[in-house]
Design brief:
Order of helices and strands: EEEEEEEEEEEEEEEE
Radius of gyration: 14 Å
Largest sheet: 5 strands, parallel
Distance between the termini: 9 Å
Shape: globular
Amino acid sequence: MVFMSTATTTLSTARGNGYVRGNGAIVLAHGSNAQVYNNFIYNNNYGIQVDYGETNAQIYNNTIANNTGFGVSISSSVSGTILKNNIIYSNSTNIDNQGSGTTLSHNYTSDPLFVNASAGDFHLQSSSPAKTASDSGGEVGAYGGGGFSSPSSPPISQIPAPKNIRVLSVAP
């Protein structure tokens, strides 16, 4: 689990995290202008939680799938969150938005047609409608480039550790 306030996380993978006090794999709290983009968050209890007075969080181009709880939860204590160009699919609740002034734009919640999600390959099949679902007409999700420059597409095992974050707690 990663707790963040006023930080950026990119090109990371969060999977298989356990339940810890109801928090998600990535929690944005007590800060402003946090950025979370181009991450894979799957097979956890929860995905991304925006809570505890966070303001103006930016959550772009993430693939959030197969979590037993919510994909993204934005609490009522939060304002100004932007949730854009993400694949948020096959979570018990994909998006729970109770925040004020939230912008929800081009988030894909239908079957995105992953190449082989069970083997950790979250690239999209050539026939996937998510390939043209972003605000700019391009691909949504962690490999997409809407909102930020598009990264290269390395296999998950080759994605480097995130920079500029502080890990306060790690679930078993």
